[in-house]
Amino acid sequence: MFVSRWSRICTLCSRVAFCSRGGGGRWRTLTGHRHASLTEEPHWVTPAPTRFYHSQFGDLYKNESVQRYLQQLMDEYKELSERLQQAHLNETDRKVLMKRHTELLPVANVFERIEQALGDLEEVLSLLHSSAAAKDEDEQLTQLLKEEEAQMSRRIVTLREDLIKALVPSDPLDSSNILLEVVAGRTTGGDICQQFTREMFDMYQGFAWYKNWDFEVLNYTPAEYGGLHHAAVRIAGESVYRHLKHEGGTHRVQRIPEVGLSSRMQRIHTGTMTVIILPQPVEFDVHIDPKDLRIDTFRSRGAGGQSVNTTDSAVRVVHLPTGIIAECQQTRSQLQNRDRAMRMLKARLYQSMMGKETEQRHTARKQQVGSRSQSDRIRSYNFSQDRVTDHRTGYVTRDIKEFMKGGEALHDLICDVLRHSETEALLEVVESSSSLKPTESGRSAD
Q: What is the pTM of this model?
């Protein structure tokens, strides 16, 4: 054993010396094949720097329930691999096993990379201690070993984050485009709600530009004094629904009006608006019987110009069986408005069809629209204190004017909410798995 260890040290030292003589080379460790524990590290490991997110993916990795769930998946993956090697499997069973095997493959790959990285780290630490104990300690060798140790520790932290991300259940709608609607609040605020709704519309338009997404206005109903009653847009691009699905809900604004008595008295007004997010999967197709539709035409409301509100170009489509309504008055062409209204109607019908299934999966989640009251708020925009607060995660950011431009500040908040949601989704799966485990063990005992 001593001869074998000494042989590895000499081999590594010769590689280090070779790379240092080459000048431009970079030292690499031997590829370890020993399986170290996934949860335990040698007590002499130098603490690796951790990235602190709201959801704390690194801390989540150390969760005992997550570790048990991970081990359960790895045992299942190993069993599936062995069963797929059996020659007597029929084609139906093989397809079922192969599907599950493919689902577990990303997790298994990261798991094996972590094991290998831990084995490599143990190898380096062993060499480092051997070098430190030697009388003729090579300072250059020791320094290289310490640098490699730090680099591998950081790599292990990154791999653990990747493993947690691989465990998060995926949403099949994440890649979908969306229909986004902004609606001024009806319960409080009056003009301040309509002004804030327009600012929110501009914010999401800026965010679409920031993410290089397509932003198509389907309907825009302005209010007086530059405000906005309602608007509907189609946003298309990469993973649009994944990023914006948690924006749905009531948003509250607190500010001092720019004009009027309240402005002179510095009195803070409070208002609300609602964001509605409807996914539009690429493959979805909602069949609508023309007999179930009532199509009305009327003159467009709002500012005129170029015959927009002097002809019956606006279109309202009513789905009679459900009472769902969609209207569009964005263009001078009645045919174009009708096409856009039908697209909005299909998106709302699709959401209605998926509503029962979504409610069964997420019984504790509130409906996006809610009552539009302040008690249902998901986020507050306090202009007086220059602060935006997300009430679901406690995330706080300053410089509200920069935030309302829809750039990096909004992106950071959305990512924080997304990590929080993914953490909750994973813990829910882990708890469900843990609750099923006693039943399964009881059956095996029987």
A: 0.66
